[in-house]
Write a structure and sequence with these properties.
alpha+beta, three-stranded antiparallel β-sheet, two-stranded antiparallel ribbon, globular, disordered C terminus
Length: about 300
């Protein structure tokens, strides 16, 4: 058993560090004032939830957004919008990483491409810094043991915690997949990460504020670590039809969407527009892939 550090690895801590490295975001409060951001927390969570197992979550716009906020803040009661306590969901994720890893890696590559910042900002590279901070949490977490195994090595291979925190090079896609799977399988107590969040943030005036990240958290840990980014190769036979920014995607990888286009419907007495169901046929380069009915599109 490791010494007590007060640091816990859980879903809220992982997601907070993932969001820290994302492109410009905006809070709900500022969004109501008309300010715009590149991405929203719920977009990232949507793709993370559906990454290895589609169809388990309820993406009702209002409820899901609230659940994401509660989960990110290490709440234990974040509703039923996300299936993290569902045994079948966790089995699907495990199977996807151990048996269907090529598609899972492709989808994680897409998530990294869409949401995370590669370029240097204020002398740092946010995504590489995120990897080192997650490694720092894994190194010091009271709920992770040296012999615990992660599917976080190259091509989602198994690696023990004691070896992972000493590795010279990390492939970011299998690393994030492996840590996410470990959390889902072994760290169900999301509330236990609240004290860790207090170390990550300098202050948060309100629960939904973006907050200011503490630059001292994990500072100097594994500065020698090399982070390998994904190479965007040809999509698997069945790519994920969940791209919010198709214009930035290589043409061959864009699922072509046919069928009804979903538009928001203004409802009397409602501040926000509602969304109606859609029927979609997904094709790639003219080849039929799948049909989805009733999926929710969040808009941009």
């Amino acid at each position: 058993m490791q010494g007590k550090s007060g640091i816990i690895l859980c879903g809220g801590v992982f997601f907070t560090l993932l969001v820290e490295a994302s492109k410009e975001r905006i809070s709900k409060r500022d969004g109501r004032k008309g300010k715009k951001g590149d991405v929203k927390d719920e977009y990232i969570m949507h793709d993370l939830v559906d990454l290895c197992a589609e169809g388990f979550a309820s993406f009702d716009q209002e409820k899901f957004s609230d659940s994401v906020s509660k989960y990110k803040n290490c709440g234990s009661n974040y509703g039923d919008s996300m299936p993290f306590h569902n045994g079948d969901y966790k089995d699907y994720v495990y199977d996807a990483i151990t048996e269907g890893k090529s598609r899972s890696l492709y989808l994680m590559n897409e998530l990294i491409r869409k949401y995370l910042v590669r370029g240097k900002m204020d002398g740092t590279e946010p995504t590489a810094l995120m990897v080192r901070k997650i490694m720092y949490v894994i190194r010091h977490a009271d709920n992770v043991e040296p012999n615990d195994e992660f599917y976080a090595d190259k091509n989602c291979g198994l690696i023990k915690q004691r070896d992972l925190i000493k590795t010279d090079t990390v492939d970011i896609a299998p690393f994030l997949l492996g840590v996410w799977n470990y959390i889902l399988q072994n760290c169900p107590d999301n509330k236990s990460g609240k004290d860790t969040l207090k170390k990550i943030y300098l202050k948060k005036e309100a629960a939904n504020d973006l907050g200011e990240y503490n630059p001292a958290f994990g500072a100097g840990f594994r500065n020698d670590l090399k982070v390998n980014y994904p190479k965007y190769e040809e999509a698997p036979a069945r790519p994920a039809p969940r791209l919010y920014d198709n214009a930035a995607t290589p043409e061959d990888d864009i699922p072509v969407i046919d069928g009804e286009v979903v538009e928001p419907v203004d409802m009397p007495g409602s501040e926000e527009p509602k969304f109606k169901e859609k029927y979609q046929n997904f094709t790639n380069n003219g080849v039929f892939i799948d049909t989805h009915i009733g999926d929710i599109h969040f808009g941009g």
